[in-house]
Design goal:
There is one protein chain. α1 packs antiparallel against α2. The longest helix is centred in the middle third of the chain and has 25 residues. It is rod-shaped and about 80 Å long. Helix content is 58%, strand content 0%. It is mostly helical. It has a domain of 51 residues.
Amino acid sequence: MGLGTGIFLLVAGAVLAFAVRDGVSAVDLTAVGWICMGAGALSLVLVLATGRRRGRVTSTTYVERHDGVPPGA
């Protein structure tokens, strides 16, 4: 999940939990909203935590020749 997914889950969950007053039989939309908000918050925390550790990784490869030919020849 990315940053956009986490924000979407938070917004959709808030709409379901606080703004929707209609009901669906056998489904509590308020509970679904709270679950979506929790998943969105968890997603944002994970994205921000792993994004700080991520950085540029550079690697250098050295090739050593043993056949007596000078480098670049």
